[in-house]
Amino acid sequence: MSSSVAKPVRMTYREACRQAIRDALTNDPRTFLMGEDVGLYGGCYAVTKGLLDEFGPSRIRDTPLAESAFVGAGIGAAIAGMHPIVEIMTCNFSLLALDQILNNAASIAHMSGGQFAVPLVIRMATGAGRQLAAQHSHSLEGWYAHIPGLKVLAPGTVEDARHMLRSALADPNPVLIFEHIVLYNAEDELDPAVESVDIGSAKIRRPGRDISVLTYGNSLPKALAAAETLAKEGIEAEVVDLRVLRPLDNATIFESVTRTRRCIIVDEGWKSGSISAEIAARLSEDLFFELDAPIRRICSSEVPIPYSRHMEEAALPQTSAIIETARSLVGRR
Amino acid sequence: MSERPHIDRQHGQQLFRDMLRIRRFEAKCAELYQAQKIRGFLHLYDGEEAVAVGVMQALEAHDAVVATYRDHGHAIARGLAMGSLMAEMFGKVEGCSRGRGGSMHFFDRARRFYGGNAIVGGGLPLSIGIALADKELRPGAVTACFFGEGAAGEGEFHESMNLAELWELPVIFVCENNLYAMGMPLELAEAETDIFRKAQAYRMPSEKVDGMNPVAVEAAARRAVERARGGKGPSFLECRTYRFRAHSMFDAQLYRTKEEIALWKERDPVPRMQAWLEENHMLSAEELKRIEDQVDVEIDAAVAFAEAGQWEKVEDLERFVLMDEVPE
User: Fold this and answer.
1) Which residues lie in coiled coils (chain B) (predicted)?
2) A330, B83, B236, B290: least buried by Cβ within 10 Å?
């Protein structure tokens, strides 16, 4: 924690997202927000409530249900000099705009020989845990992290929700921000001395010597809860918040795992072909001889996320699984 | 703006010259493709020259262009240097996209040429965003967005029509209806084969234009540009045209007859424009010879420029995947 004299402010992740957007609109006349129900309705997850009154309809621009066109319009506005924020209601709907994101946003800079940059931010909700069933509960950030030309952020704390947007807008590249639907109600104290965060590094949220738990998004609080329990048993788990899924911060990840020599990756995406698979591959390529135990991954079950509470919980990475896996890995010492 | 622009000698010759530049440039491209100097896909614009040339007459330097993978004609008519286009197709670093895009992806920041887009319909949403930005940053600027009639099958086409009219954006949608989406005949693909009627459903001013006549295209484009500059929103031009050559260099053309091609060739805009100018005493034999010579010299110089070009350093492969700054 900073030793700033200003008093910490308590706020929700949702409020942090809203304040970040308000700041962006206030500070840069080239920034506007566009998406479904961002204006009159106030945002599907109430993030943009009140902003239409404050900034008017040309800067809080409600769109029809046309993901491909309004994402493409964001790209067009960006290459023509604006710094737009596009909100896609959930990442499940972003698939309707996947062509624009991959074939235009991620490709134009390279394909044009560097003549055009795409300084666009796309925010979308991700993840499961609110019984919204398969078509509103998937975690697709790992897919997007496959694509060169994009930056992919996953704020897992109120502080990152508050400050990542500003860094993302200052970046000349298309940046995707995945806000976890369960985290919108999370509350935390915000250090007023912190005015910005980087969007290049992973962060150690809890130091520990025995095992590294690499995670992001809503699995971060689960990993921290697991570390709390493990500490009582004498197992010191280090929790690394990946924060940035593309480009991955190899340095922080490798440094942590080199120290602890054990590693669990917790990822709400499906295991096959996931960001957890990518990290595990990098660790096995580069840190093979540093490891004292096999890399373990805790991911969502490979099913469309079901509606009923007990089935949804069974499908998602849970604190108990992190605890048990850590025990088994450290127990082999 | 009168219905038909007055075509004086100079302007008539310019229309003819630009169409001839495209025609002969592409004949050279086909030759160089056979010689394997140009590789990949090569989509030629032969027969459709009147559309790009006609529309570009109505545009100013601060306007924007969004093109398709069949973008040679748009680029030449927009004023991109032929040498940079040929170098691009050779894959040389002097190319208009550093050799990264090839024939389908010409870009030019200085001329606001936002790319040949090779995903059918993929450029339409971009034109919406460019026009949105221009309303803020370059009032009065207009975006000309080109696409084939095949794009009308894509959802993005309809999404973009709606947004353009809903938000009254300064866009001119130019549908190059050459009757075949690759090999798919229009009447097998569309329940409504008059594409301009789809735009009408979005309350957009739209018209069917003779896409084999650059004067008719220019007149329609000027009407559309005037509306857009005046804040009256988008327009839609369905330019009926025809592609004389194969879709790309890998096309046996099983889907259409030689008779049909021959029929459309009677309306070839290049010799027709030449004949019209000659009949009206606006093009002498000496002037014709001079234009042809100039075009040939320009093309020869473009080929020489491309030949002399360099290959981009392999070490630069990952350069521009992520940008360090937004280019000014």
Assistant:
1) none
2) B290
